[in-house]
Amino acid sequence: MTVTVSKEEIEKQKAFIYKIKQRCKRFAVSHGRSPLALTETYGCQQNENDTERIRGILEECGFEFTGDANAADIVIYNTCAVRENAEQKVFGRLGILKHIKEARPEMIIGLCGCMVQQAHITERIREKYSHVDLIFGTHALHKLPELLCGVLDGGNKIVDIQDSDGFIAEGLPVKRSDKSKAWVSIMYGCNNFCTYCIVPYVRGRERSRRREDIIGEIKGLAADGVTEVTLLGQNVNSYGKDIYEDYDFSELLKAVNEIEGLRRIRFVTSHPKDFSDKLIDTMAECKKVCRQLHLPFQAGSDRVLREMNRGYTKEEYLDKIRRLKARIPDIALSTDVIVGFPTETDEDFLETLDVLEKVRFDNIFSFIYSRREGTPAAKLDFVLSDEDIHRNFDRLLEIQNRISKEKNLVFEGQVVDVLVDGVSKTDKNMLSGRMENTKIVNFPGPKSLCGRYVRVRVTEAHTWSLNGVLADEGIAED
């Protein structure tokens, strides 16, 4: 059952925001500047979206922002539990912060997100990282003003990782860094319980936002100049099942498609077992829905898929892809792949490579299996050695790199529409943006083009991106 945080609770949090704001004003008078906050995000787009709410709350409280931990008065890390590497990065950052806090004891350090929703991780932090002042889980984000107020008033360490199926909190302030694009969460949690995945345990069961709240938020974004939205959920295909009888994700997509001012609509993530012909038809019929889909298949072996509890077979997945390509021939496809699931053999892995060759994804997000405490797969013994798993992983990348380069070569010489994101991460003398199919295009141009749609002639294809020059047509307005 979806539980919505009451208006009374939101008003209560606003009172705490006001209280912190008065404290921040006094701080500004005595220090000659506003207090500074630093936020860092690990993990998925859902975490990024949560951090936007954390930043919105902090801004309402009177904080300004910095990227320098040495200057920050409060640091909040929004953590990820999906892979061990993300956890180790956080622990490394905490080690660095310990030395900074020794020099500035008044600094506040907070951890939130999926990683700390696990009791054994929180206990480890309490024991080994005692300089952390505030720990709050995925279900307590809306209570940040109250929790922060408790730290500021009492100087006590506060932990709130209540075990719950989670809440829907509407009306929280949001601070977005991008004025032309926005993530919009349409639901939270997951009911699938894939045997390797920790998400249902740390984010709770599926719960959908009301359609009127989603549409209202997106209309507000469009009125503010946002032209591209990405609808977020652990499994967007399940949207509405918990609160509506006759309104599903396809219906929501159609409603969003009608919002004036929007130009592009994306969504992540879809689960193959729930990906329907109705959704394929909706994607084909809605002009603003991008001809692009992220559809994780994770493994090609039917036996491994059963042990992962994925709910579909290799052939069922491939059949959905065939139907999708028949309806939308120019669809760009991406996926997630796990290499080295404990029971995976070399023969199983060959089935995964077969899926790559048959589907020909534009790009993939590939990971070596990471054991997560508390999941069923964590109890399984490995069939392959670590050396074998890494060998298979390298082979997977080699094949996909070839396919990605081949698919990018098709665009050489074409003129394409690009939404300019900003300066390229690989060449500071270039701008970077994305086509409708999410392909990255780098090209020279003035920074004044950021946030605008431009026409770019592709001159060179690389494995993961394209290079180009501004076409004679210039701006790609409607």
Please tell me about this protein's structure.
This protein has about 475 residues and is of the alpha/beta class. The protein folds into 3 domains: about 5-160, 3-Layer(aba) Sandwich (Rossmann fold); about 180-410, tm_1862 like domain (pyruvate-formate lyase- activating enzyme); about 415-475, OB fold (Dihydrolipoamide Acetyltransferase, E2P), CATH 2.40.50. The chain has 13 helices and 19 strands. It has helices spanning about 5-30, 45-60, 85-105, 120-130, 145-155, 200-205, 210-225, 250-255, 275-285, 300-310, 315-325, 345-360, 385-410; strands spanning about 35-40, 65, 75-80, 110-115, 135, 160, 180-185, 185-190, 205-210, 230, 265-270, 290-295, 330-340, 365-370, 415-425, 430-435, 440-445, 455-460, 465-475. Helix 1 packs across helix 2 (about 45-60) and helix 8 packs parallel to helix 9 (about 275-285). The chain is globular.
Give a quick precis of the structure:
This protein is an alpha/beta fold.
Key terms for this structure?
OB fold (Dihydrolipoamide Acetyltransferase, E2P), five-stranded mixed beta barrel, single chain, alpha/beta, Rossmann fold, 13 helices, 37% helix
- Structural class call reads alpha/beta
Biggest sheet, open or closed, and with what strands and sense? 6 strands, parallel
Specify the oligomeric state: single chain
CATH architecture of the largest domain: Alpha-Beta Horseshoe
- According to CATH, the fold-level topology of the largest domain is pyruvate-formate lyase- activating enzyme
